[in-house]
Every structure is written in structure tokens, then in C-alpha cells.
Amino acid sequence: MNYLKEINKEIVDKILSSPKQKYLLRFEEHPSTIEFWEKLNDKILSNHDKVEIYLYGNKGKWKNLDFLRYLSNLQRLNINSSDIVDINGLEFTPNLKFLRLDCLYLKDHHPIQYLRRLSDLYLGSTENNISLSFLESLDGLAKLQIWGRKKDFHVLKSGGIRFLTVEDTRIEEDIIGIFNAMHSLEILELSRVDIENLNVLKRLNEKIRITLL
């Protein structure tokens, strides 16, 4: 769905008439009023769990995520913007279940630790080698996709991740050991990874289904 300029009865009725259909609401810039976000939260997000908000653009229009304080019913959020350097504000979305972050200059993932209902997380590449330690607090995380990460892989051993995608990372024996220690892991996808010796993959637990992309 194209960029929304207002929340009116026609828009609300259209979205709510298809409760099983996924809707992607695109925003290239910040709507002008707080009232807009409040109406979106109360009239749409509170009644439809498959509506995803997609923030994008790199023209300095997204300076922060403070507006998320008005979206407490939000369950799906996708951010693709190099303007975003911190994600403070996520703590106001306790019902978030899906989060995708493609923010090249992001400095910290700390606010994600407050999203206790999060089950599906995608972390794009960042210039900074950000720690993954915050993942230890996400007990309900079932699907994780990480791009270009090299730090704190050991935290993946805790929790119940069943589906893991690792992209643009060097895979060595110690990381294979971490994969084997992930007792809930069922599917492992490796994409654009650097594997010096493919024989290390033979050491993966036979219960893990692996795909090389």
C-alpha cells in the first residue's frame, strides 16, 4: 500500500475487511502529526495483526524513532534507512513480533532486548561490529537472520532459535560448535559465507538441515 497521508474510514474499512491479508504500509517520511500515529494504532493496528510498517529513505527524514511511543499495538516493523543510527523508541512497542533492520550506521542494538514477544528478527550489516549479547534476553526468538556479524556468536547457544540464517560471515570450527550447541536449531542457511575448509560442515549435528545459498 502506498504512503498514507491520512487515516480515514475508507482506509480502515479496507484493511480490516481482510484480516488474513498482509498489508505493508510504506513511509518515506514522518507524517506531520501525532494524531496520525494514534489513529493508526487505535483503529488499525489494534484490530489487524498482519499490518507491517515499512520505513525507508536516506534523505535525513528519519532522525529518530520517538514516534513509536504511539504505536503500542504494532507487531511488524521493517526499517531500511541509513539515517537511523539508534533505535531508541523500540521499547515502546512491547507487542512487536517481527523486526527487520537494515540500518548501515546503527550504533547499538540495546533497545531490542525489551521486545520479549519478538519471534522473528533480521539484522542487516552495519559499519560497526555490534555485539549480539542482547539476544540472551529474547527467550521467544524462533527465527534469526544475521548479516556480516563477527562478534558474540556464543550467545546463540541460549534460547530456542529454530531457523537461523548467517550471511557474509567467516565460518570456522568454533562457530560450528556453537551451531551444534543450539539444541532447538532445525534449519541453518549459510549465504555468502567464507568457509576455508568445507569439511568443518561435516561436524554439524545430523539433526540440523543445512542449506548453502
Can you tag this structure with a few keywords?
213 residues, alpha/beta, nine-stranded parallel beta sheet, 3 helices, 9 strands, 14% helix, elongated
Q: Can you walk me through this structure?
A:
It is a single chain. The protein is of the alpha/beta class. It has three helices and nine strands. It has a nine-stranded parallel β-sheet with strand order 1-2-3-4-5-6-7-8-9, with no helix packed on it. The longest helix is centred in the first third of the chain and has 12 residues, at 34-45. The mean pLDDT is 90.
From the N-terminal CA to the C-terminal CA, the straight-line distance is 31 Å
DSSP E strands, number: 9
Q: Major sheet, described briefly?
A: 9 strands, parallel
Q: What count of helical segments does DSSP give?
A: 3
Poorly predicted residue ranges:
none
Give me the side-by-side strand order of the main sheet: 1-2-3-4-5-6-7-8-9
- Class from helix and strand fractions: alpha/beta
Rg over CA atoms: 19 Å
Q: Averaged pLDDT, please?
A: 90
Query: Helicity range of the residues?
Result: 10-25%
Portion in beta strands:
15-25%
Envelope shape: elongated
**H/E series, N to C?**
HEHEEEEEEHEE
